[in-house]
Automatic annotation (TrEMBL), chain A:
The lineage of its organism: Bacteria, Bacillati, Actinomycetota, Actinomycetes, Streptosporangiales. This is ABC transporter permease. The chain crosses the membrane at residues 12-33, 53-72, 84-105, 138-157, 164-185, 205-227. Keywords: Membrane, Transmembrane, Transmembrane helix. The keyword Nuclease does not apply. It comes from the Bacteria.
TrEMBL record, chain B:
The keyword Heme does not apply. Gene3D superfamilies: P-loop containing nucleotide triphosphate hydrolases. Keywords: ATP-binding, Nucleotide-binding, Transport. It comes from the Bacteria. Pfam families: ABC_tran (PF00005). GO terms for molecular function: ATP binding. Signal peptide: none annotated. Residues 3-228 form the ABC transporter domain. This is ATP-binding cassette domain-containing protein.
């Protein structure tokens, strides 16, 4: 199998730009709050809830944009499936690494400013300095969100509005993974009580990694079951 | 590349888009694929390019089934106006992936085509006019140099000068790099001079598959004094006609034998070719 270098590079370059923009935004917002004297927690921790939505978008775009492009360029669904799987498996740790870098940057800035980098939410880690655990938490989270996006994106691409039936499964994949690194879905502004749904799972990096891997494999298998013979959309003429 | 289609059926729910379609193309030529809206052209090309699977029947390219056959699909290219290969951000992004995924990609040729159509690499595809997007599709289709290259009305959005530049570029590149090219179009008169063979489908079925010259020879324009034209064409299949004063020109479908040609000459009538579009209208006019 050919290594998906350009698919990865394109997504990584864009993610890097978004990460830089997020860093600037968090720095500006954090500075404004600090000037008012009320910055008592990690600002990056709050901002770190946004990238998972980007991860979901990447999963959707993988099927909706790149699958048709691959096929139109003479690649098979099998070739795309393999390259897409590798892309997800490598892009999620890349995103997690960017999140870790964000915490590291914040640690330095807070230390210079004499601020405490306290955490306001339940995590797998108890201190932003636990870098391997921080990396593990976000890795598991991004794996789940990307693969859930790919699965739901495949459902909507194939069945249009019928894809709505893939949402419960996609949410289930995310819920399972999120419950290994925190209280659960953590979607405070969405879905009401469902947004706070969680499973009571043991919180350890090993369990999180094992379940994250299982979610990844299950999500990829489910996505493959939809795209393995999916027709490209066209206007009938 | 040789194309063999046998009893091909494609259905969309209750709708049958292709209905036991069969034909063969020996390859190495420029083929015209003609048909009215809804005749099944896009569906046929989509099956040939493995964009979708047939419901039944067989499609073979160089003797092998094409769907999920990576040895074959990498040698097949279909450019549609749906924009699968172009709608990725900037023109540069589209070329970036085309170069990577197309085994026969010619970057220099792509660059010269970009110049020809007035495209720049930094242009956002979503911000392009329809004509520019079509031109970008044409660049990717031609520079991909796939042994089986198909364009599904993907150049219709281009303005006439750009379309004629495309026809010239296509012909020049085909002469330099012979391959099988299929053009699906409604602009029959513009493109018909490129076709070596023509496949016409209607309601998902084959209407005609012939060499262009053979097809054109089926139609004749009979011109002369109105009453003599009427007398000559009596009993023949007349597709239509025009009159100017006492002079009339009638389009006749079907072979005109030597005896009839002799009678036409005696009557002072001129016999000439008719346009492919007129034949197309006749052949597909009752297709629904």
């Amino acid at each position: 199998m050919r290594f998906p270098s350009r698919l990865l590079a394109a997504n990584m370059a864009f993610a890097l730009l978004l990460w830089a923009a997020l860093v600037v935004l968090v720095a500006v917002v954090g500075a404004v709050i600090a000037i008012n004297g009320s910055l008592t927690e990690s600002a990056w921790e709050k901002a770190a809830q946004v990238p998972r939505w980007y991860a979901l978008f990447v999963g959707v775009a993988l099927v909706r944009e790149y699958l048709p492009m691959y096929i139109a360029h003479g690649q098979t669904r099998r070739q795309f499936g393999a390259q897409g799987a590798v892309t997800v498996a490598l892009f999620a740790p890349f995103l997690a690494l960017l999140l870790v870098l964000g915490y590291l940057l914040e640690t330095g800035i807070y230390a210079l400013a004499g601020l405490e980098q306290a955490l306001g939410q339940v995590h797998l880690f108890t201190d932003p300095g636990q870098l391997p655990v921080v990396f593990t938490e976000y890795l598991v989270e991004f794996l789940a969100w990307i693969v859930a996006g790919a699965f739901m994106g495949a459902g909507f691409y194939r069945w249009r509005e019928g894809g709505v039936f893939t949402i419960p499964v996609g949410v289930g994949l995310v819920l399972l993974a999120e419950s290994t690194v925190g209280p659960g879905l953590r979607l405070p502004f969405l879905l009401g009580r469902l947004g706070r749904l969680g499973l009571d799972l043991p919180k350890s990096p090993a369990v999180a990694l094992a379940i994250g891997l299982a979610v990844l494999l299950a999500g990829l298998a489910l996505t493959w079951s939809i795209i393995r013979d999916v027709p490209l959309r066209n206007r009938w003429s | 590349m040789r194309v063999d289609v046998e009893d091909l059926v494609v259905t969309y729910g209750e709708v049958t888009a292709l209905d036991r379609l069969s034909f063969s193309l020996e390859g190495g030529k420029i083929y015209g694929l003609l048909g009215r809206n809804g005749s099944g052209k896009t569906t046929l090309l989509s099956v040939l390019a493995a964009f979708r699977k047939e419901s039944s029947g067989t499609v073979r390219i160089d003797g092998e089934p094409v769907f999920e056959n990576e040895g074959l699909t990498s040698r097949v290219s279909l450019i549609r106006d749906a924009g699968e290969t172009t709608d990725l951000g900037t023109a540069e992004d589209a070329l970036y992936f085309a170069e990577w995924l197309r085994p026969h990609w010619d970057a220099d040729y792509a660059r010269s085509l970009m110049d020809l159509f007035g495209l720049t690499r930094k242009m956002s595809v979503k911000g392009m006019s329809k004509g520019m997007r079509s031109a970008l599709g044409v660049v990717i289709g031609l520079a991909g140099r796939a042994p089986l290259t198909m364009f599904d009305e993907s150049y219709l959005g281009m303005d006439p000068p750009a379309r004629y530049a495309f026809y010239d570029a296509l012909l020049a590149d085909y002469m330099e790099h012979p391959r099988t090219i299929i053009l699906s179009t409604h602009l029959i008169e513009e493109v018909s001079s490129l076709f070596e063979e023509v496949v016409i489908i209607g309601r998902g079925r084959l209407v005609v598959h012939e060499e262009t010259q053979t097809l054109l020879s089926r139609g004749t324009a009979v011109t002369g004094p109105a009453e003599r034209v009427d007398a000559f064409t009596d009993g023949l299949t007349v597709l239509g006609g025009t009159s100017l004063g006492s002079t009339k020109s009638a389009m006749v479908y079907g072979e005109i034998d030597e005896a009839r040609r002799g009678r036409a000459a005696e009557a002072g009538l001129e016999l000439g070719p008719i346009a492919m579009q007129d034949l197309f209208i006749h052949l597909t006019g009752d297709a629904r």
